[in-house]
Amino acid sequence: MSSEEQTAQEALTFADLGLSPKVLSAVTDAGYTVPTPIQAGAIPHALQGKDVLGIAQTGTGKTASFVLPMLTRLEKGRARARMPRTLILEPTRELAAQVEENFVKYGKNHPKLNIALLIGGVSFDEQDKKLERGADVLIATPGRLLDHRERGKLLLNGVEILVIDEADRMLDMGFIPDIERICEMIPSLTRQTLFFSATMPPEITKLTEKFLHAPVRVEVSKAASTGTNITQRLVKSGPKPWDKRAALRELINAESGELKNAIIFCNRKVEVSELFRSLIKYDFDAGALHGDMDQRARMQMLANFRDGKLKLLVASDVAARGLDIPDVSHVFNYDVPIHAEDYVHRIGRTGRAGRSGKSFTIVTKNDAKYLAAIEKLTGLKIEWHDGDLSTVVASEGEDEAPRRGRGAPRRAGRKDEGERKRGGRERSQRHAEKPAREPEAVDIDAVAADAPVEKRERKEAIRSDNAERKARPERAEQPRRDDRPRRDDHRGGRPDRSEQNRRQREQDDDGTVGFGDDMPAFMRVSAKV
DNA sequence: AAAAAAC
């Protein structure tokens, strides 16, 4: 594209793109007049029925660049039962739901538009009913889509427009075989394909060669890989979880003047859970988001965070890309991401739409090589916030190596692999929180679908617990935290985790019945504000 | 080395 064309396009308004009056009016009502570069580039071609290869990061207005032309094109024709007219594939459930919201928003003048969202973790029947009724727009994650299809509830040969969104992320997640299968189910002669990816690794290029016909390539210049409006800092910490949690708390407090809301990224789901619990204990206004959580909790957390009912969101990389969370003032990396690109995506959650943002990455001595990779990728030496690792004060916590030789010999009564791992983690967790003398915990295990336990086990535990609770509604005064085993005897007579949980649940008995029956207490806690 | 995604 020449620079003249570029300038000409910047002067464009949505009214110049060829969208239908209904769509245009919804766009205007939403307060938009000038399309973003990807929208200006893709919409006219999409309206003409051409295949489009859009290379754009999230936050560039990519979603509207396919939603708007699709709505326009859907005005002609009607959907037949079980034969959706369009299909949009998304890598995560949240993204799929987000696209649905866009269709609702811009499709408000299309009262007859049927939208079906096929994602995992929610009821099958409702989705099936929508399919039966005939969907104009089908938005799906690959797993659930294939599930419906295998049950014979879905025919894909009537699909007129196929959208593959976040293709590079699909690749990362191992979805490419699924995507290929799905593409092959849709007749290529009658199909228009819109394909979006932030980057074009060889596998993705191959995919586009296979499934796109003479695509129009629309590339949006990458926003400087890590936006210059983001202030990035490194924060030293000891290597232990309690060191890192303390460093984070200190940081949040120090930033409290500027901190409007923040996402705190962890590398692992268990860490999300642990950190979330810890923050709640310290009375921070925090929520959690990761893929093992109950789908309703995921949605609710995200909604609360977006609506400003929740200040801190502790999340796995499920939240790193694509989620449209406007106006996050801070991003904290509780862990240095193992993949350098993830760093870019994570901190890209702040400093959006030209606003300024701050990111802090907690670094321990174990993170050197990941940090080096990040600095290499971004071509940037990230400054230390308050002295580098050489100034870390030694932790007062337990020795690095787990102590042995106390209690029963290790061989006796050895637990299975999973249990042993969990036990170890809990031990360090408990210990970690000891020195700080935290206020009593909100019990999260009782309700959170995010504990590192099989779902079934969890449900079972809650069910039996509820039964027990009913049987004994009244109970003697609870022991206080100070009566619990202390620092040095935590290896010995520590009450069983489930015992602790049970007591805690009895303490804040709130009538929570179990998954799916009631809103988890931790969500209520966060919603209180 | 981790997350995500199907019952």
Give a verbal description of the structure.
It is a single chain. This protein has 529 residues and is of the alpha/beta class. The chain is built from 19 helices and 14 strands. The protein has helices at residues 3-10, 21-29, 37-47, 62-74, 93-106, 124-133, 142-150, 167-172, 176-185, 202-211, 241-255, 269-281, 295-306, 340-347, 368-378, 417-433, 455-471, 497-507, 521-528, and strands at residues 52-55, 86-89, 115-118, 137-140, 161-164, 192-197, 216-219, 230-236, 262-265, 286-289, 312-315, 330-333, 357-363, 383-384. The strands form two sheets. The protein has a seven-stranded parallel sheet with strand order 3-4-2-5-6-1-7, with helices on both faces. It binds one DNA strand of 7 nucleotides through residues 91-93, 119-121, 124, 141-147, 150, 169, 172-175, 178, 267-269, 290-291, 316-318, 320, 337-339, 342.
If you compute it from the alpha carbons, what radius of gyration comes out, rounded to the nearest whole angstrom?
Answer: 25 Å
SSE class: alpha/beta
Shape: globular
What's the mean pLDDT score?
A: 76
Point out poorly predicted stretches: 398-529
Using the 3D structure, state the CATH architecture of the largest domain: 3-Layer(aba) Sandwich
